[in-house]
């Protein structure tokens, strides 16, 4: 089943998970066809799809629902509203599942290559090694970037970690494009440039989605606390002039936050719970200073 949207094409549905193809991906497909690599692009597409299915399978074991998968040249982006902002260890395990699947396939075809050598086995080794190790690069939203984001979120919070990695991705992709133009052949540089553009587009989409899902998870924290009854606490100390947005940027995953508000002399003015902070933001806005929220409480 194929349906179309503004810039995407839905190609199939697997157990209520929509698999879509960005129209921009037609560019490398056409290039591959032009150079006579029909079998190669079909095999690469199948490997990328199974790479994402490995993520989905592991995610389902941890109760994480994947609603949509968008396929790119380097892999895909599995979108979930229940993963970002929660347990970083779960995100790491789910993110490593795809590259691990391709690594196992690479080893399998290396064994087959020892028994009977052919172009098919050679290409499968090459394709799986590329998908595996390329996706482990610390670029966002590659699996390596998500693993690094989950690790950094323990120290800097999800929003800050996402922002840092997105900026790093932009810088490295521009650097890679410049290097490929000067150091590689025309065909190689075209492929690298297209690949870098895909990563930039995916990083921008993932960054916007992460901010939205983070806020959605924050607003549902009161319900989560009632369900779990006990949560670990992250204590923050801030000046009275700090805004609610700045506080949110310091939030860590899987923690309930309590703020101690002080004045410029270090005197404690009071405390604000995470639930009170959220209610204050709903009433007064994201850029409200915590002193005003404290007075309302």
Automatic annotation (TrEMBL):
User: Which molecular function terms from Gene Ontology are attached?
Assistant: metal ion binding; metallopeptidase activity
Q: Where in the cell is it found?
A: Membrane
Give Gene Ontology CC terms. Answer: membrane
All residue ranges annotated as the CBS domain in the record: 231-289
Gene Ontology BP term (one) = proteolysis
- InterPro entries, alphabetically? CBS_dom, CBS_dom_sf, Peptidase_M50
UniProt entry tagged with the keyword Transmembrane:
yes
The record's listing under Pfam families reads: CBS, Peptidase_M50
Q: What is its main location?
A: membrane
Write out the transmembrane intervals. Answer: 21-50, 92-112, 119-140, 168-201
Q: Tell me yes or no: is Nucleotide-binding among this UniProt entry's keywords.
A: no
Its membrane topology is listed as: Multi-pass membrane protein
Task: Tell me its cofactors.
Answer: Zn(2+)
Q: Which UniProt keywords apply?
A: CBS domain, Hydrolase, Membrane, Metal-binding, Metalloprotease, Protease, Transmembrane, Transmembrane helix, Zinc
UniProt xrefs under SUPFAM superfamilies: CBS-domain pair
Q: Which PANTHER family match?
A: MEMBRANE-ASSOCIATED ZINC METALLOPROTEASE M50B (PTHR39188), STAGE IV SPORULATION PROTEIN FB (PTHR39188:SF3)
Q: Which family does it belong to?
A: Belongs to the peptidase M50B family.
This chain belongs to which protein, by name? CBS domain-containing protein
- State the organism of origin: Gottschalkia purinilytica
Q: What is the lineage of its organism?
A: Bacteria, Bacillati, Bacillota, Tissierellia, Tissierellales
């Amino acid at each position: 089943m194929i349906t179309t949207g503004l810039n995407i094409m839905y190609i199939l549905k697997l157990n209520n998970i929509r698999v879509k193809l960005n129209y921009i991906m037609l560019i490398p497909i056409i290039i591959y066809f032009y150079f006579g690599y029909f079998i190669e692009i079909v095999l690469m597409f199948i490997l990328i799809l199974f790479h994402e299915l490995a993520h989905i399978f592991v995610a389902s074991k941890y109760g994480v629902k994947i609603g949509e998968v968008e396929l790119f040249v380097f892999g895909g982006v599995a979108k979930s509203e229940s993963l970002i902002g929660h347990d970083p260890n779960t995100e790491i395990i789910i993110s490593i599942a795809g590259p691990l699947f391709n690594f196992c396939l690479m080893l399998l075809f290396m064994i087959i290559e020892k028994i009977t050598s052919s172009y098919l086995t050679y290409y499968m080794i090459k394709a799986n090694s590329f998908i595996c190790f390329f996706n482990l690069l610390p670029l966002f939203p590659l699996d390596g970037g998500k693993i690094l984001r989950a690790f950094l979120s323990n120290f800097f919070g999800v929003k800050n970690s996402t922002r840092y990695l997105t900026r790093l991705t932009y810088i490295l992709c521009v650097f890679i494009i410049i290097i490929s133009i000067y150091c590689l052949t025309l065909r190689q540089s075209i492929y690298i440039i297209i690949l870098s553009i895909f990563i930039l587009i995916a990083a921008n989409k993932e960054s916007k989605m992460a901010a939205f899902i983070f806020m959605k998870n924050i607003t549902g924290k009161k319900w989560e606390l009632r369900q779990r009854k006990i949560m670990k606490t992250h204590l923050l100390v801030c000046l009275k002039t700090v805004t609610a947005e700045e506080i949110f940027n310091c939030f860590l995953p899987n923690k309930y936050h309590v703020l101690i508000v002080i004045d410029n002399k270090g005197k404690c003015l009071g405390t604000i719970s995470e639930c009170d902070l959220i209610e204050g933001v709903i009433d007064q806005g994201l850029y409200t200073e915590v002193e005003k929220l404290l007075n309302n409480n």
